[in-house]
Amino acid sequence: MTHILGSKRDFLDWNDEDAMEFLEITRDIADHPEFRKLEQFTHHLHTNRYQHCLNVSWYTYLWAKKLGLNYKEAARGALLHDFFLYDYRNNPPIEGNHNEIHPIAAFTNAEKYFEVTDIMRDCILRHMWPNTSASPETREGYLVSVADKYCAGIEVGSKSYYAIYPVLKQIYEMIEEGLI
Ligand SMILES: [Fe+2]
Ligand SMILES: [Fe+2]
């Protein structure tokens, strides 16, 4: 497991209780050999899909905990949200809209290797909202959707994400001020 992009905190800091709890919640997934295959896939230009999933899971964990939600299932669902093992540009296993298809592929893999709760299912299957029509059914699901776009903005390094999703800028500023 590696450092989280854009975070001032280090989840390998033994003095950070949140970081230690995050590791405890997510380690079995993060260390699973099948899940680690995500490291082989470039994601959002400058990172890999494994690191992206860790980023989304970390922010989801922090925000869900702050909001009093089921942060454990939210963090695990977030970690699994892009658990699809193919290059969607060159070799997609199923034809169709990538936004619609890859959450289903991720959910199929998640169920194959891990126990998936209803909240985790919502986090995985609906994370592409609002780029897809089906909105999340849980607050945790909405949070993963926001965290996914927030992390994409950091990873790609594009401020355009903040223009498209003004709420992301507000969240970013809250993080900067140490509020979340
Ligand atoms: Fe995705
Ligand atoms: Fe994602």
Trace the largest sheet across and list its strands: 1-2
Oligomer: single chain
Count of structural domains? 1
The overall strand count is 2
Largest sheet: 2 strands, antiparallel
Mean model confidence by pLDDT: 86
CATH superfamily assignment? Answer: Hypothetical protein af1432
Summarize this, please?
With 180 residues, this protein is an all-alpha fold. It contains nine helices and two strands, in the order ααββααααααα.
Protein described:
By secondary structure, the protein is mostly helical. The chain has a single domain (17-176), classed as Hypothetical protein af1432 (Orthogonal Bundle), CATH 1.10.3210. It is 57% helix and 2% strand. The protein is built from nine helices and two strands; from the N terminus they run ααββααααααα. The chain has helices spanning 17-30, 33-36, 49-66, 71-79, 98-113, 118-125, 139-156, 160-164, 166-176, and strands at residues 42-43, 47-48. Strand 1 (42-43) and strand 2 form a beta hairpin. 41% of the residues are buried. The structure holds fe (ii) ion (2 copies). Residues 81-82, 102, 127-128 line the site of one fe (ii) ion.
